[in-house]
From TrEMBL, chain A:
It is an enzyme of class 1 (oxidoreductase). This is Glutamate synthase (NADPH). Residues 110-120 have a biased composition (Low complexity). SUPFAM superfamilies: FMN-linked oxidoreductases. Residues 110-130 are annotated as: Disordered. Residues 81-331, 360-403 form the Glutamate synthase domain. GO terms for molecular function: glutamate synthase (NADPH) activity.
UniProtKB/TrEMBL annotation, chain B:
Gene3D superfamilies: Glutamate synthase, alpha subunit, C-terminal domain (2.160.20.60). One of its GO terms (molecular function) is oxidoreductase activity. This is Glutamate synthase alpha subunit domain protein. SUPFAM superfamilies: Alpha subunit of glutamate synthase, C-terminal domain. It comes from Pseudonocardia dioxanivorans (strain ATCC 55486 / DSM 44775 / JCM 13855 / CB1190). CDD domains: GXGXG (cd00504).
Length: 440, 234
């Protein structure tokens, strides 16, 4: 086979190799491509922002001596028992069904070790997850699979899910390969079928109804549990205002880079807005309501490093959530499985077929043999380590900006590398005072 | 808490929502000090008697708003009036009886127990039902039993369009006309076991109809797997 570059062959920018493969795949199968992960296209992101460390005009904190606190309280607007987390980095909702029971347990163990929360997902709460999670957020989803009021009462917070960044406006799906007897039983469905999750809640249809739904959830839990509302990032300014008006204690905004277990490729790549563009909209909505820092904002979708954490918080988030990165910490896409990825037509760094249940790392599977590869204790240790690194990195950057608490980071600490990022994040282009869209 | 009949453990407690808040009522019902409750002047309030988990009896005298008896476990609730959206939503066990009509999404996502609506129910009755039994004395609106997974829905009157759209394993019995069955929902044979279970449901609901007057609907199971040739079904 010749080297196309050496031979002077020119690849089409419009019809690149991935596009050609997608067309040929569609022609062969007659169905759209379904995969996991989140948007893979390049979009303006936290890498397009930089932090302004202290020098003459600002005073830094000593990196190895002075405190930079990280704790956060979530849900103290109305709830009798808000969450008190040691770090502002939480584990996002991922279902048992999408993930193995061992993976869910490992996430709970890791989160608990560093004093943060983890979240259930479609399909309900497993005993393994509840047992290993000090702070467990219970997702209340349109499908209501496995929805049990006893679990609602056993949770530490309730997250009403309206959408997620990978597929705002779309429901869920769990293909038959992953509908094991246990998953099917929890969801009251026949084993082995391709299971659809509704995109709309079955018993309310708009923001006014959501107000009453939240009232019902509060009444059932005697006003003790914080109630989050999660939206996929689209019309974020309006969605956040409506969520707050409906009574949310916490708003979760998930950008288009946020992951999924199984969604149409066309949906993942073409619906929603980048996380970077969503945060300022959410903060503006909260500011205008006089509730920024009173209704907490959790941001997810593409959080990978402590720099991402620090930048999201500088833009106004109270906390962040990680999903894909937590799976990678557990071992997803690890080079040690290179041969096995190759056997299923993938490679480390590219594997995204979470929907088909053949994950060599034993994370996105219900196959007992594959799932057994993941030791929940070791997995928990890895997740805890990763969360510690994120925290240490964010603290390092915050101290450099002279902040004694991560929440003290502010937009004034940021500049943008590109005009696009400056416009979306509403911070100046580096070296200028220009914020596109806000005049000169 | 205004308890007209005393405040210690007792047979009957009367609660007047004209002078007591729904919050106070629900707090009492979550840690009950009586075996039976009468709730007066509900005046359409939302979230009355939600999250119950004890084997108590609650009678609501008047109309109730959204989510009346939502997520009920073990309790027996009777509403002497009509109810708003989502009555007995996600019920797990026990029973809820509505003497009047019910708005949208009656019994939505219910996992168990018996919901009886003696009048008619609006759209989406039994949507995503997961094991609950629902008996409606009158009609049900469009898209009832949408994505119904398990349980039985009995309609003694007519059913609107899109009945049982994308249904899984729930069984639907309709005595009157069906506007149209939804995607993957088909009429099925009434075998002896269906006549028997329908007769039991009607008896439990206290409705005197002959099971032989009903038709059964359920899933054709053609949409259980994604396939290109099904694309026109949605």
């Amino acid at each position: 086979m010749i080297d196309p570059a050496q031979a002077g062959l020119r690849e089409s920018a419009t019809f690149d190799r991935a596009t050609i493969a997608a067309i040929q795949r569609a022609a062969e199968t007659g169905v759209y491509d379904i995969r996991g992960w989140g948007a893979k296209r390049a979009v303006p992101h936290f890498d397009d922002l930089l932090l302004l460390g202290a020098s003459m005009s600002r005073y830094p904190l000593e990196g190895y001596r002075e405190r930079c606190d990280t704790d956060v309280v979530l849900g103290d607007r109305h709830a009798g028992n808000p969450l008190h987390l040691d770090i502002p980095i939480t584990i996002a909702g991922m279902s048992f069904g999408a993930l193995s029971a061992q993976a869910k347990e490992a996430l709970g163990r890791g989160a608990t070790e560093v004093g943060t929360s983890t979240t259930t997902g479609d399909g309900g709460m497993t005993p393994e997850e509840r047992g290993q999670s000090k702070h467990l957020v219970y997702q209340y989803l349109p499908s209501r699979y496995g929805m049990n009021p006893d679990d609602l009462r056993a949770a530490d917070a309730i997250e009403v899910v309206l959408g997620q960044g990978a597929k705002p406006g779309g429901g869920g799906m769990l293909l038959g390969q992953k509908i094991s007897e246990r998953v099917a039983g929890m969801r009251t469905l026949p084993a082995g079928i391709d299971q659809r999750s509704a995109c709309r809640h079955p018993d309310w249809t708009g923001p006014d109804d959501l107000t009453i739904k939240i009232l019902e959830l509060r009444e059932i839990t005697d006003w003790q549990k914080p109630i989050y509302v999660k939206v996929g990032a689209t019309r974020t300014y309006y969605d956040v205002k409506l969520a707050v008006a409906a009574g949310a204690d916490v708003v979760v905004v998930d950008g288009m880079q946020g992951g999924t277990a199984a969604t149409q490729e066309v949906f993942i790549e073409h619906v929603g807005i980048p996380t970077l563009a969503a945060i300022p909209q959410a903060v503006q909505a909260l500011d205008e309501l006089g509730l920024h820092r009173k209704v907490q904002l959790i941001v997810s979708g593409g959080i990978r490093t402590g720099a991402d954490v620090a930048k999201a918080m500088a833009l106004g988030a109270d906390a962040v959530a990680i999903g894909t990165a937590a799976l990678i910490a557990l071992g997803d896409n690890h080079p040690r499985y290179a041969d096995e990825y190759a056997a299923i037509g993938s490679a480390p760094g590219f594997y995204d077929d979470f929907q088909d249940g053949r994950d060599p790392a034993g994370i996105t599977t219900q196959d007992p043999e594959l799932a057994a590869r993941l030791d929940p204790v070791e997995g928990g240790r890895r997740v805890a380590n990763y969360l510690r690194v994120l925290t240490l990195e964010a603290q390092t950057l915050a101290r450099a900006c002279g902040k004694a608490h991560l929440r003290n980071l502010e937009p004034e600490d940021l500049v943008a590398l590109t005009i696009e990022a400056a416009a979306m994040a509403r911070v100046p282009l580096a070296g200028t005072s220009w914020i596109p869209g806000q005049g000169f | 808490m205004v308890a007209l009949n005393g405040s210690s453990v007792q047979e009957l407690m009367k609660v007047d929502l004209a002078s007591t808040s729904v919050r106070e009522l629900n707090a009492e019902l979550h840690a009950p000090t009586a075996r039976r409750y009468e709730v007066h002047n509900p005046r359409g309030a939302e979230a009355i008697a939600v999250g119950l988990r004890h084997a108590i009896e609650v009678e609501i005298h008047g109309p109730a708003g959204y989510y009346c008896a939502g997520m009920n476990m073990l309790a027996d609730v009777v509403v002497h009036g009509s109810v708003g959206t989502g009555v007995a939503e996600n019920m797990m066990s026990g029973s809820v009886r509505v003497r009047g009509d019910a708005s949208q999404s009656a019994g939505a996502t219910g996992h168990g127990g018996l919901l009886v609506v003696e009048g008619s129910a609006s759209m989406r009755c039994g949507i995503s039902m997961k094991g609950i039994d629902i008996v409606v004395g009158g009609d049900v609106g469009p898209m009832s039993a949408f994505m119904a997974q398990a349980g039985r829905l009995v309609v003694c009157g007519d059913a609107g369009d899109g009945l049982g759209d994308s249904i899984y394993e729930a069984r639907l019995y309709v005595r009157g006309r069906v506007g149209s069955p939804g995607a993957d929902c088909v009429e099925k044979e009434m075998r002896d076991e269906h006549v028997a279970e329908l007769g039991q449901l009607l008896a439990d609901a206290g409705l005197p109809h002959d099971p032989g007057e009903f038709r059964r609907f359920g899933s054709a199971r053609r949409l259980y797997h994604f396939a290109a040739h099904n694309s026109a079904a949605y």
